[in-house]
Amino acid sequence: MKKILWKLKWLYIFDTVCFVITVACIAMIPYVEKRFIEMFTAHNLNVSNIVYLISLFAGLVLAYLLFNYLSIVFDFKRSVAFEKEIRDSYFGSLLTGRERVWEEEKKDEHIQALTTEITQLEDDYLTPVLNTIQGALQIVTYAVIIFALIDAYIALGVLALALLGVVASRSIKNNASKKREEYLASNACYIGFIRQLLSGFTAIRQNNVKSVSDREEGYSARTASKRLCYGKSKAFLLSFNNVVSYFAMLLFFTFVVCLSYAGVISVAVAIVSFGYIDLVMEPINVILDSVACLKTSVHLKKKIESRIMGKTEVDYRQDSVINMKADHISCVRDGKAILSDFSYLFETGKSYLLCGPNGSGKSTLLKILSGIYPMSDGKILVNKEVVPNGVIYSDIYYVDQFPIVFRASFEENVTMFGSYDISSLQEFEFMKLEVLKKIADCADCEVLSGGEKQLISLCRALISGARWILMDETFSGVSNAVEDKVIEEILSKDYNVIYITHNFNCEKYFRERIELK
User: Fold this and answer.
1) Edge to edge, what strands does the sheet with 336-347 contain?
2) Residue range 160-172, pLDDT digits in tens
3) Residue 364 is part of which domain span?
4) Does the predicted model carry a pTM greater than 0.85?
5) Domain check: are 417 and 370 in the same one?
6) Which residues of 380-412 are buried (b: 16+ CB within 10 A; e: fewer)?
């Protein structure tokens, strides 16, 4: 977080400088009033002095309007820049994260973070921090101007009140941050239930409407209860701030009255000091409210920081893969054994057909070999060296049965927005097939069928530079004739293929058959 704030330092500095100038203009106005009172009581109010006072007042107003406008502009730029930097850092952490498989709940969590929590962080963390800093500068500016132009005792009183407010705000203990997280977690459960409900809406029949409604009411009631607990906790903070604020105002009023009674300050100073009460209380209230807000955003700040600053980079390796060995590997997910004690040596220059019934772990094996899934036990050796979980070789490409394509052209989808050179596809004869010609002319690949999307995913693999292509039922959505044509051509070139299919007519193209049970 500090690195991001440092990148935007000049926006903060310009914003703060403009803010301090506007504060100085406001603080000078009571001085003009004091001069008027002194001239009036001394019977020294002539035309030239009146012009002087009005001109000074007008100059302060104009300066205030100008620098207040600039402060608002820099404040807005700072807000936009901060949110953009956080979003970019967060997105970058997703791309470089070790986690390569996303469950629906985790997708929802990260989408929520990108769309709402980052905005909340700006509102509930950055803004209060800057408000606290600017509030402190505002008080110091008031104190300096009061000391120089009004009275030293009043300046000391202003600083004492500010110190009282800061000490009081920091001394209070409150669990509003924890209550907020509990509410957000409950709200996320409610949103997840509604999402599942809408996804399976057609399953709802007349006889189960009541039970579904009862479940919704339970989620809703728990969410409302957590929201109320958070509201009470935050209300306590704000109420305490009001107590401190009005108590400080009472002390300042008493202080000025006592100084006036003792003859330490003049009538003019006493009158303008009462005007300073409101001016001084404004930054004190801002500091109190900002500290209260920061107390409620502690967990949110830590959560976002852990996501964007965590050392989660994937270990990408560019080495050519000569051989891969699965050595007694197993995989357990959600307490269920998907793959158990599998061993095999995969060598370059060969092609492998992976067979077995549904649930035997075929897809899991390919995902482990490609670095997408972690192993629960055993080890993978590449070029006779043990490969830890989280390592991905650029020479190995996993082609999913259910590929993701983007709302973009064929070329952008295949090259992943310019990452690869599409010209190498021209060496493949199967690109002349009608189905490939249709796909190549598509401007929005999101509208294509499942089989056509599978062909896009395969094209990505073929131009990626990887020599090991791990194909997970890549042609389940296309005709057997197209599958035979493409497979035969790929295997005739310098690719090492491990292939899962239910079209056993393709078995003749493969040198080795591996059976999982």
Assistant:
1) 336-347, 323-333, 377-382, 385-387
2) 877 776 677 666 6
3) 316-515
4) no
5) yes
6) bebeeeebeeeebbebbbbbbbebebeebebeb
